[in-house]
Write a structure and sequence with these properties.
heterodimer, A: mainly alpha, MetI-like fold, two-stranded antiparallel sheet, two-stranded antiparallel ribbon, 19 helices, 4 strands, flat, B: alpha+beta, Rossmann fold, OB fold (Dihydrolipoamide Acetyltransferase, E2P), 2 domains, 6-stranded mixed beta sheet, 5-stranded mixed beta barrel, 20 strands, 23% helix
Chain lengths: 419, 364
């Protein structure tokens, strides 16, 4: 039994402070809870949090020049960036170019420089090759003699930026900005501005897909919620069926259906709605992407909606009607508001999945139906510009987190029901 | 039966209801409900009482027959045009609206002016003693408060008729009894017509002007509570309402206002013939436990039998005593806990007796 000593803490029967013995009694439970989540926590840390952190870090990491041209990098960092650097810097770089060329690491420097200054890959590799052949220690004159670009301040201003261990240039490139010769941030040339438009397109397409999913999922979820269990289970199986089918198969079947010589166009031609020469392009463009993605993401909308609607007792509608509301009014004022948490949960799920979707746009998007994730993949796999891929991914991540925050402020994440 | 000068508000005419086309849930219902009456439909689950209520509210359609409200058939009137208030079993308060918005709902739907609505909502809240709760959400109310709001919402638009579908089922016993009185008082004060459905017989007896006892889709008896308890017309009503001792036997003689029933193998009982088919037919005798006397004085009772005390249950104001009489070991006697009364002991043999007019011979 708990005892109170005048002014002292509450004690238990053995005279130990109650708080201490409570903590002791609860410790076992806490340890067990920790033990239960530990494997998953470790798994998520290793396979999810750590790679993401690493990837985001790559967006600002700038190690190439510091690593392969260490002395030159140090001298460049000390340089004030005005005009051309001292001759010693030229000499140092020529020497390190020759060394790196011998060690076959100059290619990395060339690639990195090429991101900032198109056409400079060949400049670097050519210079390295020629400097390596020199019998004497290379000097500024040797370097400048190879290519007049080595005597231009633009080249050196880029090199100075690359000598820094961290850079914003990937993030700038991801929002269609770049540094000019003076180191100021300016717009990319118009012909190279693609990412902002792509982000906006991705946002707009994801919103469109989310809206279409709400429109299509709401009636079916409602039907499932009001039908007897036996029938609604059958419907549920039909809704889940796509989940059990390979994503690739589903996307490919859309190609079969929607292509110019596909089933849908054939039917339209056969029924005479369109002429044989007027076949509609429904795939390998944005239409294809939207249609296929709505189909694939629909279950993610139906399930949260259904789970919310299932808990709404039909007596609410009856009550509203008995109070004099027409069925339509009862639906809008009583039923619909109660399903908003389900719409919110489904929307945020579908939206977040859509904004990062890769495989479907890659297969059916053609040229105009590509989304930001396709470009991230392109920079990861084809151009090997991981820094830019990381910057694009980082912006995407920040955007999703920002939307999530807004959603939480507007709807409240506690109101979200997933099941 | 409805008093002759009373105005009829609701009339069921030969109403039948079937859900599957094979079984009738409601069989040929004829019922008149007077204006201002508190009528309870009482019965076990599946007896058809809730179906009747739902047909009246418009959520179920009658398979056959007519339902008349205020002189007009409402068979084809949708629920929202019937102007009937309803209190649901689980209150059905709209969870996304405050108490005040819930109460205002029927008024907003009827396009009343804002000031009118405010005044009426406040009056309704005051009526159920929840004046300060206008801004709360239903989730922040206790069961009893939610129940009061549900009642207020069903009354706030002054409907012709209020239906209540087991509204107190979710409350604990004490609160339920308190709410019974409150609903009864509201009914008395407003004079509104109430049709109330319950399976709780004490609730029905406490609140109603008349009770319709349902079983198997048929009204077994329609009577005021006292008649229902004291003058049951068949053995279902006798068993369902209150505690009842049942002795079965065969009618051997009928003599005007009394009859004799031979209780299987243990003697003859004099009783009032109520619902028997004549001499030779089977009958169930119904006898209320409080009408049985222990060790009656000689000559005062026509029916006296030996009884063996089986079990005693102490209930404060009385002893519930189970005895064996005439081969029935589930015979209950209520022995009042009054000064100088006999104290029985299990195993002892006593005499029990009762008057012929307290014992009703009903259908087998």
């Amino acid at each position: 039994m708990a005892q109170v000593e005048a002014g002292g803490p509450m004690l238990d029967a053995a005279g130990v402070p109650l708080k201490v013995s409570l903590a002791r009694a609860e410790r076992r439970n806490r340890m067990r809870a920790l033990g239960l989540v530990l494997p998953l926590l470790a798994f998520i840390l290793i396979t999810f949090v750590y790679p993401i952190a690493l990837m985001v870090f790559r967006g600002v990491d700038n190690p190439t020049v510091s690593e392969f041209l260490p002395e030159t990098a140090e001298m460049l960092r000390a340089w004030d960036g005005e005009g051309l650097p001292e001759d010693a810097v030229f000499a140092s770089m020529a020497r390190e170019f020759a060394k790196a060329s011998k060690e076959r690491t100059l290619g990395k420097v060339a690639t990195r420089l090429n991101y900032e200054l198109s056409g400079s890959r060949s400049l670097v590799t050519k210079s390295g090759r020629n400097l390596r052949r020199l019998k004497t220690e290379p000097t500024k004159a040797d370097l400048v003699a190879l290519d007049k670009r080595w005597n231009q301040p633009e080249t050196w201003s880029v090199l100075k930026r690359l000598a820094e261990p961290y850079t914003l240039s990937y993030y700038l490139a991801a929002i269609d900005k770049t540094y000019n010769v003076d180191g100021a941030i300016v717009d990319q040339p118009e012909s190279r501005q693609i990412y902002v438009a792509l982000f906006l397109r991705t946002l707009w397409v994801s919103l469109l897909i989310t809206a279409l999913c709400v429109l299509l999922a709401y009636p079916i979820a409602y039907l499932m919620a009001i039908l007897p269990t036996k029938t609604s289970n059958l419907l549920m199986i039909l809704v889940l069926l796509p989940f059990w089918t390979s994503l690739l198969v589903r996307t490919s079947s859309w190609i079969v259906l929607l292509q110019t010589e596909g089933v849908l166009n054939d039917i339209l031609v056969w029924t005479g709605i369109i002429g044989d020469d007027g076949r509609i392009q429904m795939i390998y463009n944005m239409t294809g992407t939207v249609v296929a993605m709505v189909h694939i993401l629909l279950p993610f909308m139906v399930l949260p909606l259904f789970s919310v609607m299932k808990t709404i007792s039909p007596t609410y509608m009856r009550a509203a009607k008995s109070l004099g509301a027409t069925p339509a009014r009862a639906f809008w004022t009583v039923y619909f508001p109660q399903t908003v948490p389900g719409i919110g949960a489904g929307s945020i799920l579908v939206f977040i999945l859509a904004i990062g979707y890769y495989i479907t746009p890659a297969l059916v998007g053609g040229r105009t139906g590509q989304l930001i994730s396709n470009f991230i993949a392109y920079h990861m796999q084809q151009s090997l510009n991981w820094g830019l891929a990381a910057a694009l991914g980082g912006i995407l991540l920040a955007g999703v987190l920002a939307l999530y925050w807004i959603y939480n402020r507007l709807v409240g994440i506690d109101n979200m029901k997933l099941g | 039966m409805v008093a002759e000068n009373a105005e009829i508000l609701v009339r069921f005419e030969e109403v039948q209801k079937s859900y599957d086309g094979e079984v009738l849930v409601v069989k040929n219902l004829n019922l008149d409900i007077a204006k201002g009456e508190f009528l309870t439909m009482l019965g076990p689950s599946g007896s058809g009482k809730t179906t009747c209520l739902m047909m009246l509210a418009g959520f179920e359609t009658a398979t056959h027959g007519k339902i008349i409200l205020d002189g007009e058939s409402i068979n084809n009137v949708p629920p929202h045009k019937r102007d009937i208030g309803m209190v649901f079993q689980n209150y059905a308060l709209f969870p996304h609206m405050t108490v005040a918005e819930n109460l205002a709902y029927p008024l907003v739907v009827r396009k009343m002016s804002k000031s009118d609505i405010e005044a009426r909502v406040q009056r309704a809240l005051d009526m159920v003693q929840l004046g300060g709760f206008a801004g709360r959400r239903p989730a922040q109310l206790s069961g009893g408060q939610a129940q009061r709001v549900a009642v207020a919402r069903a009354l706030v638009f002054e409907p012709k008729l209020v239906l209540m579908d087991e509204p107190l089922g979710a409350l604990d016993k004490q609160l339920r009894e308190q709410m019974q009185y409150e609903i009864k008082h509201i009914h008395d004060n407003l004079g509104v017509t109430v049709v109330y459905v319950t399976h709780d017989q004490s609730e029905a007896l406490t609140m109603s002007d008349r009770v319709a006892v349902f079983n198997d889709g048929v009204i077994q008896q329609l009577a005021p509570p006292d008649q229902l308890y004291e003058l049951p017309e068949n053995s279902f009503v006798a068993q369902f309402i209150g505690e009842n001792n049942k002795l079965s036997g065969k009618v051997t003689a009928v003599n005007g206002s009394t009859c004799t029933v031979e209780v299987d193998g243990s003697g003859e009982v004099k009783a009032v013939p109520v619902n028997i088919d004549g001499i030779g037919s089977r009958s169930s005798l119904s006898l209320r436990p409080e009408r049985v006397m222990v060790n009656p004085s000689d000559g005062t009772c026509p029916n006296v039998f030996d009884a063996q005390v089986e079990e005693l249950i102490y209930l404060g104001d009385h002893m519930r005593t189970r005895v064996s009489v005439c081969g029935h070991d589930d015979f209950i006697v209520k022995v009042p806990n009054s000064a100088g009364h006999v104290h029985l002991r299990p195993g002892e043999t006593v005499k029990v007796g009762w008057q012929a007019e307290d014992c009703r011979a009903l259908d087998a």
